[in-house]
Write a structure and sequence with these properties.
CATH class of the largest domain: Alpha Beta
Radius of gyration: 23 Å
Oligomer: single chain
Order of helices and strands: HEEHEEHEHEEEEHHEHEHEHEHH
Largest sheet: 8 strands, mixed
Number of strands: 13
Distance between the termini: 21 Å
Strand content: 15-25%
Helix content: 25-40%
CATH topology of the largest domain: Rossmann fold
Bound molecules: adenosine-5'-triphosphate, magnesium ion
Shape: elongated
Strand order of the largest sheet: 8-9-5-10-4-11-12-13
Number of helices: 11
């Protein structure tokens, strides 16, 4: 493992281009953090208009990586006298976006039930409602009355997230009434998401799930710019029109500038079985539609979730069906198991950042 002294030695050998001295002598090094193969270095720029700050960041990164190219190096530069830039989800191991092209296909239902299923399997799980304009997590978690509050952590005011059913979560709907959220403009929404990423005391988590709005919006952009996502799950019904939109969603994550692995599809509302005819399956939205798309993109179908009255009722009551031991719950347990498998596979394949188990 890399040692702090090795990094200090490197920094002593990097000179500021105009100030003439090395970074340590100039007292530009505010902090060095080492965790496994992750190295974070905080530098303080002496003045606001230092034209060399970004090139210095690159020089430092390159120099530290010259010790070991497998290191995951993050340099953060702040200006002397200005507040620290807060890190994004510092204690979170894996981040997953739950997305779809089409609205109303069950993203929020899948996000909430997957979060509960992961928590039940012992994974420390968080959920961020990134649907700033139409938040549904407070209702689906029966937490509409929860009022977030702030605590002081290392000199910063941090929001304490809500916690229920073993899941930590936050939604803009907990701060403003959902009627007010609709009138927000794009930049305000992006800022609200940014705050949920940096100004919340999430603690250590194995998974953070993001319940996204439908389509491809500013929020999607903000998310992929600010979080290096482990992967995305695309929710779709087997219906042609939903699948066409799901393909648009997959393409957005596959775009070379976005480059987020799509871990698989979740086929929701896959069929309906009436109570009195338990052997019968009615394929209301079509059959095996997600299979075709999955083959086309060479990604798995992670679960097939039937249409069940209890799923809808659980959503409306704020008691996710995944909490119970009903047969319906099986689909969400299986989804959780397959998601964990995919995450571990992807993390293993990212040799350059080192192997992380999901837990
Ligand atoms: N498998 C299912 N069985 C029964 N009802 C379901 C199922 N999946 C979702 N629903 C219901 O369908 C409605 C829409 O689901 P949900 O809100 O999860 O969709 P969404 O994709 O998040 O929508 P939006 O695009 O508006 O965010 C909800 O009333 C939900 O309870
Ligand atoms: Mg939703």
């Amino acid at each position: 493992m890399i040692k702090r002294e090795q990094i200090e030695e490197i920094l002593k050998n990097i000179k500021h281009p105009t100030l003439g001295n090395d970074l340590v002598t100039l007292k530009m090094v505010a902090g060095i953090g080492i965790e496994g193969n992750k190295v974070s270095i905080s530098l303080v720029s002496p003045g606001k208009k230092d034209p060399f700050s970004s090139s210095l960041k690159k020089v430092v990164e390159k120099a530290v990586k010259s010790i070991d190219s497998n290191l995951d190096v993050k340099i953060n530069m702040k200006i002397a006298g200005e507040p620290d830039e807060l890190p994004v989800l510092p204690g979170v191991k894996n981040t997953l976006a739950i997305a779809s092209g089409k609205g109303g296909v069950g993203k929020s239902t899948v996000a909430v039930n997957l979060a509960v299923a992961l928590a039940k399997q012992g994974y420390r799980t968080g959920l961020i409602d990134a649907d700033i304009f139409g938040p549904s997590i407070p209702k689906m978690m029966d937490a509409e009355e929860f009022k977030p509050y702030a605590v002081e952590r290392n000199g910063h005011k941090m929001i304490v997230p809500a916690e229920k059913y073993g899941v930590k979560f936050l939604s803009i709907g907990l701060f403003v009434s959902s009627d007010n959220a609709v009138v927000w403009r794009g930049p305000m929404a992006s800022r609200a998401l940014g705050q949920m990423l940096t100004e919340v005391d999430w603690g250590e988590l194995d998974f953070m799930l993001f319940d996204l709005p439908p389509g491809t919006s500013d929020i999607h952009l903000t998310l992929v710019q600010q979080v290096s996502l482990t992967g995305a799950l695309i929710v779709s019904t087997p219906q042609e029109i939903a699948l066409a939109d799901a393909i648009r969603g997959i393409s957005m994550f596959n775009d070379k500038n976005v480059n987020v692995p799509v871990l698989g599809l979740v086929e929701n509302m896959a069929w309906f079985t009436p109570l009195e005819l338990p052997e019968n399956r009615y394929y209301i939205f079509g059959k095996n539609g997600c299979d075709k798309v999955a083959r086309q993109f060479n990604i798995p179908v992670l679960a097939e979730i039937p249409i069940v009255q209890g799923i809808r009722e659980g959503g409306d009551k704020g008691e996710p069906v995944a909490l119970s031991e009903l047969p319906t719950t099986e689909a969400f347990n299986e989804l959780a198991i397959n998601v964990i498998k995919q995450v571990e596979m992807h993390n293993k394949s990212k040799i350059h950042t080192g192997y992380k188990s999901a837990k």
